[in-house]
Structure formats: structure tokens, C-alpha cells
């Protein structure tokens, strides 16, 4: 029954792995341990996608699955927000009280940016102005250790082959980059 307390769910994919698991002929195979599978310990969508992407199976590290996982995670966030708003309709006119409290979780919405702005101003008032600000970037095509992270001899690669590898293994490159940033920040904090 569709009503105020039972919103319609327009799209539901319980497996969240159909893009990568095929039988070799383009047919999706029967695969267990999808997003909505029954488990002894429940897994949140964020945890599920992090385990998949950072796991050993490289099929889940392809660009198409990364974009699918981002889409699915954002979709579930919007869906849960709509369901929460749908349950909070209490006035005679069908208005939602304090809708900004629900929309602040949706990236890109006006309520989200207002909340982010207020939190930043509150942090500056509490801690004071920052003394320095750092922006990091990565020369992923020319750093030898970045090429070595892809388990390829860096001397055998030209710039086009390196670029292709970086595009195909975005998860490996980003993990290596985050390790470098973490080591740099640790070094800076320990050597005052």
C-alpha cells in the first residue's frame, strides 16, 4: 500500500555487484555476499563498498564499479533521507517540520553547504585562524615509486603506458598517495 508512511522505492538492486560478476559470456552469475544478503553481523552500505573496493578482488577496483558504487551510495543516502522525511509528515497541510535537518546530509544541497559553512565558522571561532594551509598534489606519471606501486619496472614504461596504468588502477594509486601524505604529516608532526 502506497501512502504517507510507505514511500514507493523506485529502484532496488540487492546485490550491488552485477556490473562485475559475469560468467564470461556477459550473463550475470549467481553470486552470494551482495549488499543486501542476510548476515550474522549487519553491514552498512559504506562498509560494504569500502570492503569491496579495497579488497583483493580487482574487479571491484575498475572505474565503472567505482562510479557505480558512488552512485549506489549516494542513491541510498537520498533514499534514506526521503524515507525519514516521509515519516515526519505531521502537519495538516502535509508539510515537513525542520526539513533542513534532513537535507543537510545530501551533498550539494543548500542545507548541506549552510551546515558546512556554520561548522567551519564555529571551528575558526573555537580554535582561531589557521597558521598555515597545505594543498597536496601528486605527480603520479613521473614519480618512480608511484610506478613501482603498480608492480611494473618504471624504466620500461613510457608516459602513455604509465597514464594508462594510472587510469586503470585508480584505487592502487590513490592508496599509495594517501600513504605518502600520511607519512609526510607524521614526519612534520614529529619533527617540530
Your description of this structure?
By secondary structure, this protein is an all-alpha fold. 49% of the residues lie in helices and 0% in strands. Helix 1 packs antiparallel against helix 2. The longest helix is centred in the middle third of the chain and has 25 residues, at 63-87. The N and C termini lie far apart (64 Å). Residues 96-190 form the Helitron helicase-like domain. It holds the Pfam family Helitron_like_N. This is Helitron_like_N domain-containing protein. InterPro entries: Helitron_helicase-like.
Q: Characterize the overall form.
A: extended
Helix content: 40-55%
How many β-strand stretches?
Answer: 0
Hey, roughly how much beta strand do the residues contain?
under 5%
- Mean pLDDT figure: 75
For the largest beta-sheet, the strand count, sense and barrel status come to: none
CA-atom Rg in angstroms: 22 Å
Note the total helix count: 7
Q: Termini distance?
A: 64 Å
Oligomer: single chain
* Order of SSEs: HHHHHHH
- What structural class should be given to the helix and strand makeup? mainly alpha
Spans of at least 5 consecutive residues whose pLDDT stays below 50 are none
Descriptive keywords:
7 helices, Helitron_helicase-like, single chain, 192 residues, mainly alpha, Helitron_like_N domain-containing protein
Helix-strand layout with pairing:
Blueprint: H1 45-54, H2 63-87, H3 100-103, H4 110-127, H5 144-149, H6 159-168, H7 170-190
Helix pairs in contact: 1-2
